[in-house]
Model the fold of this input.
Amino acid sequence: MSFQRIAIIGLGLLGGSIGLACKAYLPEVETTGYDRDPATRKRAAERGLVGHVCETPQEAARQADLVIFCVPPGAMGDAAREIAEALPAGALVSDVGSCKQSIARALAEALPNHRAGGAIIPAHPVAGTENSGPDAGFAELFHNRWCIVTPPEDANLTLLTQLTTFWEALGANVELMSAQHHDLVLAVTSHLPHLIAYTIVGTASDLEEVTRSEVIKYSAGGFRDFTRIAASDPTMWRDVFLSNKEAVLEMLQRFTEDLTALQRAIRVGDGQALFDHFARTRAIRRSIIAEGQDDARPDFGRGDHR
Amino acid sequence: MSFQRIAIIGLGLLGGSIGLACKAYLPEVETTGYDRDPATRKRAAERGLVGHVCETPQEAARQADLVIFCVPPGAMGDAAREIAEALPAGALVSDVGSCKQSIARALAEALPNHRAGGAIIPAHPVAGTENSGPDAGFAELFHNRWCIVTPPEDANLTLLTQLTTFWEALGANVELMSAQHHDLVLAVTSHLPHLIAYTIVGTASDLEEVTRSEVIKYSAGGFRDFTRIAASDPTMWRDVFLSNKEAVLEMLQRFTEDLTALQRAIRVGDGQALFDHFARTRAIRRSIIAEGQDDARPDFGRGDHR
Done:
């Protein structure tokens, strides 16, 4: 590991987990951290999320050789501008945001010198839980998860290699792709699922004929699976949808077409079309389990009832 | 417990779990079982899902004082007709299907004498996993889950009390409601979520720009939550959508309206509308956890990483 001093800007689920993972797997690395919320800074210090919680972002960044922004996508540009003067010339700038094209643009505008040096390399660890804030992080969050790194074409290759090594040290597998392709992939594997989950939980809350208490009581019939991701951080998700608008709308269009086809099959009573669709979606879950991206136990292993 | 001999017709996840739960919690009760698939009968006998696996449904039903149909909704009528001659006059007939109006009609048509005696009382334990078949069942499936009983207006009250006591003995909480209301409630808490999950998993499988391998690798971003219920039994779900068509189409219409509103908010960049929607859906998950209908641990407790 070539990084000696890592600054983490934003000490929620992701920032906190990176700090705890550094402590666990890279104990020789010094970590500093900052969060604009004083209560989060206080809690971060209590939990020891980073070696030193700073009172200003400049102080956190001043001696860093790697700065990782762990703030909502819409806050990246402002957060980067704040530390622009303090940031050492040779430092690598990265992030953990779920949309890469918009964040790459925001960081490049805020830190033109680092951009010119190929020293801004955005990344996205595809890991998280429905919890947020300084109490949500844990060192094992990135174990066996993928971290997608989206280097610009002129990225500094030494820094790219160091960033890859860093994420691997935290337990992640690293994949490189373009920011544009990342945004399309994540639109379908993450952004559209969240939008759908937020929608159906809202729909179920607003019915007149079925009470909210009934929805809660009988949620084990399937609904509860959607409520987990619909409990995710609203600020972050607002920013994701605004930042990856084109790809999300594109995927949503395809989803709506497919839903309309199934709706029609139900309306006309086409049992064969329904069966054929339902039978082929089983295979993808088997693959997800085979590749270690989900739990093989029934009900995600909830309650460990087997 | 007043039932002495229980016949279980259909030995998949639900039938097998009822058999195992009887063995565990009602050891004095004799159980017989039948499944039309010889391989399922063989496996049911090996696992001891019921006391005696019969070669014909008539043999299973002949001495029963409670017959529970655990076959897909569309197969209930035929299964009931098969045992009509063998069924003792005083026996209670029930089931576990996810649509109650259509099943009540099918059972009543097949067993007019029992219908006349108020001895057909449909029920629906809101419990299950994504697994199916004779290997999927387990005795604890109904623990702290709700069982909805939908008695017709002229139901025999002694039999109704006995059925309630039976489900409570298996660990369930019992609620009574009309079949019509049940079908509306389940349309939103179970049927619509399954339809949405089947749709999005299909959409993700069919993209040209994003490979199936990418969808699987990066599924931890949210998509994998949908794949669990989209791995459920296709035959059963085909029947559910055909049997509860009106309520499902009604809920689907509302979902589509809500999705269109969020789509518009994304398109016009209305961050406040998105934030407001996302913030209010958190509360419902907290309630589901508070009422013991889901696991409070992050990620449903998958991998137990905390």
Chain A touches chain B through 112 residues (CB under 8 Å). Chain A has a mean pLDDT of 95.
